[in-house]
Every structure is written in structure tokens, then in C-alpha cells.
Amino acid sequence: MKRIYYLFTFILLSAVSGCNKYLDILPDNKPVLEDAFKDKYNAEKYLFTCYNSLPNVVNPTNTLGISGGGDIIYSEKNTGGGFSAGPPATQMAFLKGNNVANPYVNFWDGANGASRNIWQGIRHCNVFLNHIRVEDGGPRDLDESTRDKWIAEVKAIKAYLHLYLFQLYGPIPIMDEVIPISAKGEELEIYREPVDKVVDYIVQTLDEAIEDLPTIGELDIVSEYGRFTKTIALSVKAKTLVLAASPLFNNNNNYSGFKDKRGVELFPVGDSKAKWERALAACDAAVRAAEEDGAVIMVTTDGGNNAIRGINSTNINDTTKAMVSLRQAVTASWNPEVIWAVNESTTVLQRWATMLSNDEYFNLAGSAGSDIGQRQSPTLNVVEMFYSSKGVPIEEDSDWETKGWYQNRYNTQLPDAEHSKYFIKEGQETAVLHFNRCLRFYASVGFDGGIWEGREKPLSEASFPNMMRHFGSGFKHSEAYGGYPFSGYLAKKLSHLKTTYTETRITLMREDYSFPIIRLADMYLLLAESLNEVGGPTQTDSRGHNAFHYLDAIRARVGMEGVVDSWNKYASARFKSKPSTEGGLRQIIRRERMNELAFEGHFYYDVRRWLMAEEMFNRPILGWNKDGENKTDFYNVRVLAQPRFSMKDYLMPIRTNTLLQSKTLVQNPGW
């Protein structure tokens, strides 16, 4: 197991400042640049500046995937915990829709909730690449193998930054060189490039980087762990090509006729199977590299290093192991499933995702409002997407149909002995929806009356949240004091098994972890998706494996049978043949991603690349009644929001003022 806890320190170097009017302009400040690259020490600081240009992936205040994807809902009125003007921009973009005057989460300009100005980061990368070589004034005390490795790292960073903008804005300018401030005329004409050209540029840049990037075994674990490796770059390449092959950018005729000011068509025309074949080859290569690095699907051996009192490697049972393993795949730093992780602080994320028990909440006196969070709240719509205990969707499960569980899922009942042992606290009445669900659900979602394993307590005394108005995590002190779970759920999966609150006063006692950007399960699912899109259920990869091989390997972690067996045994008659067709398997793979990767930041991008957001986000967003003071009142389904999503919302808008400053840029369709 990779158990390395190396905190990668980024050192900011304000060596280059640029004019905000243009995307990538190099100031004529020669002495500053010469100082930045005069020796190895200063050049390495500039390398870290490039790394620091990577956007945040953890903080819910400025990370679209974590809080803006539609899977998590905050109340517009919830201003507690330091928010004087309501929820962060990431959530407001979903609740209110975006705009062109001052776009929410504006990564193009680095404004209004965006964690970075991505173009500025690309400029840093180009400056580095233009000055790191000896012939360009670079350090002479840097050995050539290290120089080549640093160049490869910065190329990988630059490619990733282009990908980040591409997945948000679609066709973007390709900025491969810095523009001097003295530039005039045509040198300042910056155009958005066609989708296929952008994709080819990202892939080509990654291919160049892969040549000189180290393997994980070649890293200096003291000073380099966490930086780009061949496998990370191969995985980013695979993700780029899957995105390019997906419906948003492949056969999306809704954007037909979208041209730049040169008259160049920016979206490809027609359906291209070749794009999926290219994506399949890239996913296959990335998975093979990850497996050669030692990556495996994470299965715990000890229940989280005493996170559950009394549970260890000698007595952990299959049920506990399955639930804890999925949480540890996310919250155990540098576990063997992680391909790429980031060492950003998880303080805010864990504060917002971690429950407060009644005992903890009743010791409110003396606590600061910022110590209370409880707002990382999955929607009821997403909760219903988790599988049944038999590993199929609840609306397709024969037991859920014939026994009336699905029709009566919003009714309540007390837990039986089987459920109260691991899932629901004895004596806690809760929704039928919370019974007979897959272990992924119980590992991922904190619900009213549900057992919250960990916190260094035995299972017999496990904590559990009460979401009603006057209890625990519920809506107790209104909007003025702290956060509350607007839908009546919490994203338990994001809370480390040992993270808790003290019972003497409300103080978060957190266990930090390195947040995974890419883990092996993600790549297995992308490989399965590519296999199916190329040749359906029978298509195989370089190892002779079909899509089911990878789906079943992930499902086995949480005790589910394979896809074919599960649908054959447990689905209603009209769904039993679903895995045997390309269209049916496509639906299964998409549902698997939603189940396995829930709340980790993938949902935002997946539903958009699949062109499913219009279907999902023009329905009411549902949750329980936060004002409910007892079970009867609380378990009433409420409409929490009614977003409006149209084709234009698949691509983010560029600020009007930015377009006025650069006459050659065009706005995205519909804006």
C-alpha cells in the first residue's frame, strides 16, 4: 500500500505580471525574468508557481464539481458560517443560472468565485518553457535530466489547464506561446479554435510530456511525491479523449453553425466512432500504466485504523469492510487506488459534510458560527439514484416493485434487527427509501436516523444524525447562525472516518486527507464506457476484458454481484435483458459512475458531457421538509429549487466586458 503523506508545498513567485486585457501577454521586464531563471533554486520556485496555477478541486466555495453540479443543494437563504450574501457562486450558478455581465465561477477571468485565472496559469507555464533552457537564459546549475523532467511537468500542467477550460467553455484559444506587451496588430488577434484542434493540442502536449515524466517508482518520495507522473498524464489524456468522444462534443448538432469571426466552424459535424476508438486506446493505456504502478481497488483490512472502536483486521466482517472501503478509497491519503490526489485543505469540505449528533449540538454555547457547517446536502433526486441492496436501480428491482417499497418509498417505518445492526439506529423511524439499499448508499449518504460509522466509536454506540428542526444536524438556528442540510441529507462519504465534533463544545476534530482527483475506479469506468461505445457488451481491450470485467471488479468491493447476474436475478422482467444491449449497458455504466463516484466532483462534468443535464435539471429538485419538528412533519417531500437548464448552459458564458476587450473572440451559443 502506498502510505505516503507528503504535503506538496507550493511557493508563490510573483515574477511576472501581465495586462488583463489579453489572454497571454509577457511583460517586457527582462531583469525580473532573468532573476527567476538565474539558478536551479529560483527556477524550481517558478516550477511551483506553475503547479500553484492548478484550480482547486476540494473547497466547496469555489469548486464547481464539489458544490455546483446539481447533486448537492444549498438553501439560497443559508448565510450562516461566514456567508453574508448567501451560498457561494458555484451554487448560485445552479440555483439562479449564469449570466454574461458577471458570470458566476468565471475561470476565464479568474473572477466571481473562480479559484484561479486559468489563462494566467497557462502564461506562467509558457514563460517557464520559454526560459528554462540554457540557450534561453535558463539555469546552468541544473542537470539536463532534471531540466527535461521539469519541462515535461510544466507541459502536463499546461495541457491540463487547457483541458479545464475546454470542459467548461468548449472551443477555446490555444495559447502555446506568450505574447510580448509590445505586440501589435495580428499578434493580438486571438481566436477560439475548433473542438478537434483543441483536443489534438492537449493530447499532443501530454504525449510530449509523457516521454520525460517519471513513473511513480522513480519519484523522490521526500520531495516529489504528488507531482505529475506518466500515469497521471496518461489518465488526463484518456479523460480528454473520452470527453471529446462524448455527446457534448461528438454529433452535437445543436451547436451546428457556431463559427468564429474568421468563419471557421468550431464544432465537429456528425457522429464519429473513431473518437471512441481513440478514447478506448487511451483508457486502456492509462489503466495498464496504473496497474503497473500497483494501483488496485481499495479494500480495507482494518476498518480505518481504529476509526471504529473494537474493529480491526482480526474481526472486521464483510459488511463493515465493504462500507468502510469505499469511504477510505476517498479519505485515506494516497491509498492504493489513488492515481492523482491533491493536498488541499479539506477543512471546509469536511465541516460541511460531517454530522452533528444531538449531544454535540446541545453544547452550542461558546462555539463560533464558523464551526458549524452541515450544508453539503445531496438532493433527494440523487439519493434515489443509488442502487437497491441487490445492485440494480430501485425502480428496476423486482422486490421494490412487487413488495410496494418503491411506491411507498416516502413513507416511514422503524428498522428491523437486520437494518439496525449496521445501517439505521435502533428505534429511529425513517423513510422506506433508506431500507434495502446498496452499501454504496450507506457509505456515501448521511440520512436522518442512519448510523454514521467511525468517529472512534463502536458500532453499537455509533453516532447518528437527526435532521429535524430541533435536533442535531437539523434546521435549528435558522439561516443566521450556521449551515444546515437543506435536503435532509449529508455527503457522509467526504467525511474522514475519524472526523468528528467534540461533545463539550462544537469544535470540528478533523482528520485531513489528500483528495483524489483520479482514482482507479474512475479509470475502470471510463474504460468500460469506451469499450461499450466502440463495440457494445462483447468488445474487449488489450487484456481480453470486456466492460463487465471492470464494472464487476468495482461492484465486488461493496459486495454486489456482477452486472449480468444482478439484472438476471433481481430485476423486473422487462429489465432483465438490459445488460445485453449497447444502449442498456450505456445506461448501466452511467448509473455506476453516479453511484461509485458520488459527491467526488465528477457528476457536474459527466451529466454535461452526456447531454443529460436538460433532462435532470428541468425537474424539481427535491428534499425533505427542513422545518419539520417531528418525523411526521419532516418526512414530507418538498420542492427545494426549480432550476432552468437549456442547451446554452452546457457551455459557460464569457463575460461581455472580456469580449469587448478582445474583438476577435466570440460568445458561446445562446449567451
TrEMBL record:
Using the UniProt record, give the first listed, main subcellular location.
membrane
Q: Which domain of life is it from?
A: Bacteria
Q: Which UniProt keywords apply?
A: Cell outer membrane, Membrane, Signal
Show the GO cellular component annotation of the record.
Answer: cell outer membrane
Keyword Glycosyltransferase among record annotations? no
Where does this one sit in the cell? Cell outer membrane
Which ranges carry the RagB/SusD domain? 336-671
A Pfam family hit: SusD-like_3
Q: SusD-like N-terminal domain location, by residue?
A: 116-239
Looking up SUPFAM superfamilies in the UniProt record yields: TPR-like
What protein family does this chain belong to?
A: Belongs to the SusD family.
Name under which the protein is recorded: Carbohydrate-binding protein SusD
Source organism of this protein record: Sphingobacterium paucimobilis HER1398
